[in-house]
Amino acid sequence: MIDPKRSPIGKVILPIQRFIQKEKSGGLVLGISVILALFLANSPWHTKYFEILQYKFGFLFENKSYIEMNIHQWINDGLMAIFFFVVGLELKREIVAGELSKPRKALLPIIAALGGMLFPALIYFSLNSAGEVGNGWGIPMATDIAFALGILYLLGNRIPLSLKVFLTAVAIVDDLGAVLVIAFFYTSDISMLNLGVGLLFLLTMFIGNRMGVRNILFYALLGIGGVWTLFLLSGVHATIAAVMAAFMIPADVKINERIFIARIKKHLTNFKNADPNSLPTLTNEQLYILERLALDNKKAMPPLQRLESAMHPFVTFVVLPIFALANAGVSVLDINLSMLFETNVAIGIILGLLVGKLIGIVGLSWLVVKLKITTFPKGMNFKNLLGIGLLTSIGFTMSLFITQLAFIDEAYQIQAKIGIFIASIIGGIAGYFILKKENTNSESVNAKI
Fold first, then answer.
1. What residues are paired with 61 via a beta bridge?
2. Position 15 in a domain
């Protein structure tokens, strides 16, 4: 028998699988995509780079074009809908059985996340309250979980698990807030007919869930062909459809753990007792047993978690890098400082992300703990909280996404992107070194003890 690790294909695939399974890999790939986008936007090929993003295509039916968008729009409305679908799956999982399922455990990250959205928006709006620039108040509210967790995992095991859980919970509540902001404040004129039909498809998915339908294809056809398409045509942003569709995916199992264990034991016993044929292939009896085992394995896993697990690598290593390639490309060839700061867009975003996040997350968390409304999780102190607060100022993916919705003027988009980059770099580096210093000191103290 050939050892998969030593086979030619194994030598190629296994290192890739190990890389994908590392928590920090997603942030690394996203960072490389940002650098590549900036390079292309400022290279001799910058004209071609922007032309490709503006190339239009759509669906043709009876000589009439439907849902015709350019590549940039397909990425932001189509590919990013997949990202928001996975966000919706994560949100539902956390609400059903995760960090947000127990009120006392969820209280601190919820308060922190709400403060981390409110204060950045207030700071930005205080500097940009009039005209189109005022639409950008939602930009500094966001936190990029891939980058933030990527930096946190660079610190390895010296970081208490409670910090990683806290940051994840804050980011998930933050994502929910961003989805609601997009739904209520960054939606164009609405076609009630298309929206109504889209909601009927959503209702069908809900009924299917309640009736016990577990077929992923059923939800995929209704979710993509019905909900996403009709929400897009209605004027409600398609990413909202993705989150709502995700909430319709079943989160329960067909067989519980006790029954699953009993069945697996039975299948293993039957497989052990089945007559082998001493050949590389299996007998019909062995195949039947393995098929039953695979079916029970499927029944024991909630469709929600099965989908989340299957789609997460695709989103992390395909969707988000492509989004970064399409949206992070800022050409500095024609930019001058006077143009960059002719409005307060950039400075509003920088202060919103850096100062607003610190006031909202660190300040409010410290306050509710001092008032004994809730407590810090084990392993967290004020300095760790400060480091986490700085990491949440990395608003990259969601901030860039909201930038495209908030501004029509390209100059404002460029100013916003520069502000996002500056705040994210400062927050990421500062957060990393504060957490590294604090937790290195803790290790030293523990070693002496």
1. 64
2. no
User: Measured between alpha carbons, how far is 358 from 151 in angstroms, rounded to an integer?
Assistant: 18
Domain assignment of residue 7, yes or no: no
Other CB atoms within 10 A of residue 123 CB: 25
Q: Are residues 216 and 89 in the same domain?
A: no
Please answer whether residues 70 and 56 qualify as being in contact, where contact means their C-beta atoms are separated by less than 8 angstroms: yes
Domains in the chain, number: 3
Asked whether the beta carbons of 146 and 30 are under 8 A apart, the reply is yes
Range of the domain at 173: 25-182+317-448
- DSSP output for 337-398: HHHHTSSSHHHHHHHIIIIIHIIIIIIHHHHHHHTTSS-PPTT--HHHHHHHHHHTT--HHH
Lookup: tokens for 41 = 């936007």
16 in a domain, yes or no?
no
pLDDT tens-digit series, residues 4-31: 555 555 544 555 555 445 556 777 788 8
What pLDDT digit, counting tens, does each position of 217-249 carry?
899 889 888 888 888 888 777 778 888 899 999
Mean pLDDT value across residues 181-185:
81
CATH code: domain of residue 408 = 1.20.1530.10
User: pLDDT tens digits for 345-385?
Assistant: 999 999 999 999 999 999 999 999 999 888 888 778 888 99
